[in-house]
Amino acid sequence: MDLHAPLGQERKGKSRGKARLRLSTVSSVFAVLALSGLSAWTALSPVALRTEPPIGQTPAPPEASEVAEIDTGRNPTEGPSGIATSGPNDGAVIRRTTTADGNVVTTFSPNARQGPVVIGSSPTQDPRLAGQPNEDLIEMTDAGGLPAVSASGLRPVDFYARPWSGARGTRIAIVIGGIGLSQTGSQKAVQDLPEDITLAFAATGNSLQRWMQEARRKGHEIVLQVPMEPFDYPASDPGRGTLLAEKSVATNIANLHQAMAQITNYTGIMNYMGARFLADDKAMDPVMRDIGKRGLLFLDDGSTARSLSGDFAKAIGFPHAYADVMIDAQVDRQAILAKLDELERIARRNGQAIGVGAAFDETIAAVTEWRNEAVARGIEFVGVSALANENRP
Predict the structure, then answer these.
(1) C-beta separation of 385 from 268 below 8 A
(2) Residues 135-191: pLDDT tens digits?
(3) Domains in the chain, start-ordered, CATH in brackets?
(4) 389: closest CA among 303, 326, 309, 327?
(5) CA-to-CA dists, residue 300 to 23, 129, 150, 203, angstroms
(6) What is the largest CA-CA distance in the chain?
């Protein structure tokens, strides 16, 4: 008998009560141990529990191993001339790595391109960066940035060339010059002419950098027109910095470089007038050598049969093209269309032809209309560099 039990009651459930007490005690101990273990595991685990940052709080910077990859080419670097430039990795994958201290490290890796077949082994410029120069193709001089062959041998005539299909068909290049001389004419040419028409920029023009960037972004190949002495100079004056047969080599080279530095991204040099200068071998020699060593082509507008430009291109060894037809010697729509038909006959006979004209309203309208019809007849329009004789030594 339990003396401590109330009178008349016996503790028949005593043993069961003790069992419940022990079970409750053990469960509490296990709960405490489990909670302590979980806290310790959370504190010591290398992978922290994921939590969302409070609203309005900026997440912490990523570790150095986290990389943001952007497939674009729209982040040009700053070249030595202070203008935006693109390097040899045009169209590259841009990888930005944020280090632990918050600094951003940017690296570039090549990115496969898609588009037309490019004839030749040299890379061409990514269309997304066509308005920016490749810094490897620029030589900084007192005159400014001049075209140059890169350390790897890449030439401006190759890099800035407009790609073409490579098909063995009839090919025509049309070059419309005088861009920069008239603001309205320049705007109309850049905006209205099809992108496969080559544009020639007058070195004496205005707003050349702006027109160049717009033309290149649209897809035009471009060349630079350098003023050269005609036979009736100065009655006919091509403008400031004209290359003159009687001037010293140093003066002509200085004027050539001044013209070259006006813009970038061009494949070659084209004469603006220049019948007398092109016929003078002593005056031509240093100028042609400078053009050749800079990896450019020379486009002769065909205005004089006495030109020596082709002979120098063969002797020195650089690309040369010669215009077959001046399409707007008579600024009249029907006359221009007749010249364009003549250009097509030459192209079908020889496989290719080059026509040159100026940025007159009549020329722009006639070329646009005729070009669309010629494409339907199976003609391929290409940049003028595609039709230049290579003349490799």
Answers:
(1) yes
(2) 999 999 999 999 999 999 999 999 999 999 999 899 999 999 999 999 999 999 999
(3) 59-115 (no CATH), 135-387 (3.20.20.370)
(4) 309
(5) 105, 29, 25, 16
(6) 145
Q: Closest Cα partner for 359 from 158, 179, 141? A: 179
| Cα(341)–Cα(92) distance, integer angstroms | 43
- Contact yes or no for 103/96 (Cβ under 8 A): no
pLDDT bin (cut points 50, 70, 90) of residue 391 is confident
Q: How far apart are CA 333 and CA 159, in angstroms?
A: 35
Calpha distance 270→247 (Å, rounded): 20
Angstrom distance (rounded) from CA 328 to CA 98: 58
Instruction: Return the closest-CA partner of residue 224 out of 280, 301, 310, 336.
Output: 301
Q: Find out whether 358 and 178 touch, Cβ atoms under 8 Å.
A: yes
pTM: 0.71
Query: Which is it for strands 352-358 and 325-326: parallel, antiparallel or unpaired?
Result: parallel
pLDDT tens digits, 85-124: 444 434 444 455 555 655 545 444 444 433 343 444 467 8
> Token pair of 128, please?
């997304």
Q: What is the mean pLDDT of residues 321-344?
A: 98
> Quick one: which of 168, 180, 63 has its CA closest to 119?
168
